[in-house]
Amino acid sequence: MNTFRVHLLSANRTFYEGECESLVIPAVDGQYGVLAGHCNTITALVPGKLSFRAPGQEEQEVAVSAGIMKIEENDVLVLADSILRPEEIDEERAERELAMAKEAMLQKLGRQEYLSAQAQLARAASKLKIRRGYMRGGSNPGPPPPGGRARQPPTPAPAAIGAAPARASKAQR
Question: How far is it, in rounded angstroms, from Cα 118 to Cα 97?
Fold first, then answer.
């Protein structure tokens, strides 16, 4: 299968850089798939599951927060606030974040506070979905593929709190 170069970068680390056979990101309008030779484009990421397959490896699934993806000449750059492997997700913390976001959305809030709570809810729900799928025997991220590199921080980074969700204008859709 043909490959392309991918760079998965979060705010605090280089998550993965290397060759890739396929990439699927959560976008504003649903899942967005990328294969080698994809046309140049830029799109917004929303919190959800990002999956990618490196040559000779199983598909890896990770939780990704809001961000952006740029494809240019068979080179894909994904910039996100956070990218977490299932085993890096603290399930209890994600459950607390989910409960706090739900409570905040029930309060009489201004538009900005409501959107912030909504983004926090999406991030927490995404993390829980990825973590629970992994615990049920879902995708195992495994080791980084040959030729690629992955760096992990000593402790998982906290999700950005209060970040506004990525929004696309009608012209971008």
Answer: 11
